[in-house]
Amino acid sequence: MNQPADSGPPPPGLRAPEGIPPGSRGLVAMLTSMRFALGLVSAITVACVVATVLPQGSEVAEHVPNNPEAARWLKRLAAAGLTNVFSSWWFIAMLTALGASLAACIGRRIKILRTGSGLPRREHTRMLGTLLVHAGLLLTLVGGAIRIFFSEQGVIQFREGEQATFFVTEDQQHEPLPFALQLVKFEIERYAPPQAGHGAEGAGPAEALSVQVPGEAGGTDWPVTLDVERDVITKTPPAGTNRVFRVAVLRRVPDFVMDATTKVVRTRSEEMLNPALLVRVTEGEVASERWLFARFPDFDMSAKPGQESLPLPFSMNYLVTLSEPTKQQVKSFKSTLRVLQGDRVAREQMIEVNAPMNYGGYAFYQSGYNEDDPSWTALRVVRDPSVPVVYLGFILMGIGAFLTAYCRAEKVKEESQC
Amino acid sequence: MLTDLFDIALVANILALLLATLNWFAPRRWLDVLTLLGFTCSVLALTVYMGLRWVEAGRAPFSNMFESLVLFAWTIPLIYLVLRMRGKTVAVLAPPAALVAALLLVYASAFLSSEIKPLMPALRSNWLAFHVMTCLVGYGSFAVTCMAAIGYLITSRAGSQVSRETQDLLEAVMSKTASYGFLFLIVGIAMGAVWANVAWGTYWSWDPKETWSLITALIYAIFLHGRYMRGWQGRRMAWIAIVGFISVLITYVGVNYLMKGLHSYAA
After folding, report:
1. Alpha helix locations (H) across chain B?
2. What is the pLDDT of residue A48?
3. In this structure, how many other beta carbons lie within 10 angstroms of the beta carbon of residue A293?
4. Is A127 within 8 Å of A106 (Cβ atoms)?
5. B118 vs A42: CB contact, 8 Å cut-off?
6. C-alpha torsion sign, points B9, B14, B19, B23
7. By the CB < 8 Å criterion, does B204 face chain A?
8. What is the tens place of the pLDDT at every residue in B212-239?
9. Which of A3, A288, A308, B159 is least surrounded by CB atoms within 10 angstroms?
10. Residue B249 has pLDDT above 90, yes or no
11. Could you tell me which residue, A66 or B249, shows the higher pLDDT?
């Protein structure tokens, strides 16, 4: 099975190219040579591997401080163009040669398909498939070249209500826009917080009123529940009689603040910035109320200003375990943009990641935001005439690869040319 | 329910492995049928698993390593079944296919979190499903190519008792699955490029994952040109297929952990 077919007379397209000046025949023969194509593709493959293994571009500057001894080697590699592989002249030359080889192969295959009416249908379809793959790849390379020479890219950063009439390129040049762009609104959408009670982040702080009786190991942590009285029993040496205290939480304040004049306690915010508990301790007919502070465990304060807190044969602490303030993960960030042509609103559109706005040959992409300044947004601006060419290349490659895989010839032919 | 389906797929692959190994040593028709049944169960269970997860998450379940490993484990038995449907009686490939699928599921369940997490803004796109699925089907095809290549290298050693017919079959499987894999890989790369252009305004940025997927495509392009245009055969093709699959592994796993880039979230 799959033995190379006996070589008979080559099909018309395999013969020496006709209509080409003799001096160019050698070049065309080389470009259509399978050996040349395979060697070139292998070289490009190796170059790509090198580019992912060695630091490239700005990575080199980051790499040197961490590996000072590598600086000397990096200098040599840089001189050889190995630290900027994808923009080096030799890599671009290889891609250009690949493009030339593809063009030569396409020309040859078109000739075969035109003249090769005797080809089996399956073989004809397969050849059409490989032609389309090659044409698609060539278009992609051409698109890349168009992008290098004719595309414009930059950024716009502005706040709600502001207008931009230019964008800033990578080399900090101001490129004018043929219209004005206004940021009408910017919003950040977040995922809903996880359900409470599952130990999820952001479920709230853990709070407890901790009571420690001297001489007893451990202690007791009570949940902070308002107006629920609990007993604390202590033994008084040396007689050992029991004293029973009743403890109740009367009030909980997340961010304690007291008016200096009126002595009225209130909370400054709902954030747990200075959490405090008002606790009433009762023994028989005697009761006292005091404030406990989570952030200042050694300090308590009588609820009645001017009166000292009664001494107690046990200690109380207000324990609060604050999780780091967490914000829910960002789901999307969106800018509502208005295009202004003079005084006229030409378009108003909301953009977000994966949903850019195209207008006047420019595409505006949502690219950044500032957590601390939610009215600020960053847009990426691209004018890239290569996109349709590259997309057409992708479509041709996909169709071609499908035809090639589906109609792969059962018998393998040995050919010296692509 | 999800856990049950996952377990069914895992058990089906383990049973397929045992049955296929028995069938390799003592070929019986019923063993072969049961092996195929095991693969079918695995594919069906994982199909329903991914479908339910898709519904539960409200997005395609291909956004992290756990989910992509499940998809990878789904593709290998599927490709084996497709080969059988296309008339390639490659019973010799059933044990490694079942083994690899089972190991992928075991690794995913033992070492990776199956929690459904919300997506970052850039991943909230319909392109996610198309791009990842096509690439993973390509990787699955290349995995079978690699299995056939290793099988070929073992069976074609001097003094091997395995028939020439089996070797030819393995070689044919190598070529066929490499063709399928190449098709899916380049379509997957193209979809990724279109998605990148929609999300970031650039269809190609020489990101390490992009570059390694290109390297993989180029290696298999060399394989296919060598095979179909130059008539390369035998052990040379097998070695290229193995090198190609090493490149697949670097693209799929290595890049996520070793290199910084636009695909770092995939780790």
Report:
1. 2-25, 29-57, 65-85, 94-111, 127-155, 164-200, 208-228, 234-249, 255-258
2. 95
3. 19
4. no
5. no
6. positive
7. yes
8. 999 999 999 999 999 888 888 889 999 9
9. B159
10. yes
11. B249
Contacts of A192 in chain B (CB under 8 A): none
Distance from CA of A201 to the nearest CA of B (A): 13
Q: How is residue B246 written in tokens?
A: 């090493």
Q: What is the pLDDT of residue B260?
A: 64
Contact B185, B217 (CB under 8 A): yes
Q: What number of other Cβ atoms are within 10 A of residue B184's Cβ? A: 24
- Residue of B183, B233, B258 for testing the chain A interface, max A β-carbons within 10 Å: B183
Q: What is the pTM of this model?
A: 0.76
Instruction: Tell me whether residues B168 and A1 touch, CB distance under 8 A.
Output: yes
- Find, in chain A, the residue whose alpha carbon is nearest to that of B195: A354
Ramachandran angles phi, psi of A206, nearest 5°: -90, 130
Q: What is the pLDDT of residues B86-110, one digit of tens each?
A: 776 678 889 999 999 999 999 999 9
What tokens appear for A288 in the block? 């006292």
CA-derived radius of gyration, chain A: 38
Q: What is the mean pLDDT of each run of 10 residues along chain A (418 residues)?
A: 38 46 73 90 95 83 73 81 89 95 92 79 86 96 95 93 93 93 91 56 68 78 84 73 86 85 80 86 85 84 73 85 67 92 92 94 92 86 96 96 75 44
How far CA A414 is from CA of A39, A131, A352, in Å, comes to 17, 18, 52
Instruction: Return d(Cα A177, Cα A161) in angstroms, integer.
Output: 18
Length of chain A: 418
SS (H, E, C) A56-94: CCHHHHHHHHHCHHHHHHHHHHHHCCCCCHHHCHHHHHH
Question: Mind listing the pLDDT tens digit for each residue in B158-173?
Answer: 777 777 888 888 998 9
Distance CA(B6)–CA(B12), nearest Å, equals: 10
| Close Cβ partners of A156 (under 8 Å, ≥ 6 residues apart) | A164, A167, A168, A181, A364, A378, A379, A381
- B198 CB-near residues (< 8 Å, 6+ apart): A354, A355, A356, B125, B127
Q: What is the pLDDT of residues B97-147, one digit of tens each?
A: 999 999 999 999 999 988 888 888 888 899 999 999 999 999 999 999 999
CB pairs < 8 Å spanning A and B:
129
Which residue matches tokens 């947004």? A377
Please spell the DSSP secondary structure of A341-409, one letter per residue: ETTEEEEEEEEETTB-EEETTEEEEEEEE-TT-TTEEEEEEEE-TTHHHHHHHHHHHHHHHHHHHHT--
Could you tell me if A320 and A205 are in contact, meaning their C-beta atoms sit under 8 angstroms apart?
Answer: yes
